[in-house]
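#onboarding

Welcome to the new folks! Below is a worked example of what a typical request in this channel looks like: someone posts a single protein sequence, and someone else replies with the predicted structure as tokens. Don't worry about understanding the tokens yet, we'll cover that in week two.

Example request:
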Amino acid sequence: MKKQFRIKKNEDFKRLIEAKKYVTNKTFTVYYLPNDLNYSRFGISVGKKHGNAVMRNKIKRQLRMMITETFVFDKSRDYVIMIRNNYHKQSYAQNLKELEVLSTKIRKGE
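Example response:
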């Protein structure tokens, strides 16, 4: 995923979370909102309780790969993906399936 498609600013994260449009399961919580751009942007949030910096960066790299494999970029939206405790208990393939389920929920919801 290119850097221009990432959300980095704290106010963008807050804006998405405060809008309270989200889908969730045991592994992920995905907040989403339409944006005024011609492309989708993603933000990834991994809390300190999920490990040290090396582990958190590994999780972010995995999530970026999952995003490119699962999300359809036909609409311009902003997304914030937060991981939950169940992420560590599952394999990469299981986490990918969980994210695909949320992606289809978002597409069907709008």
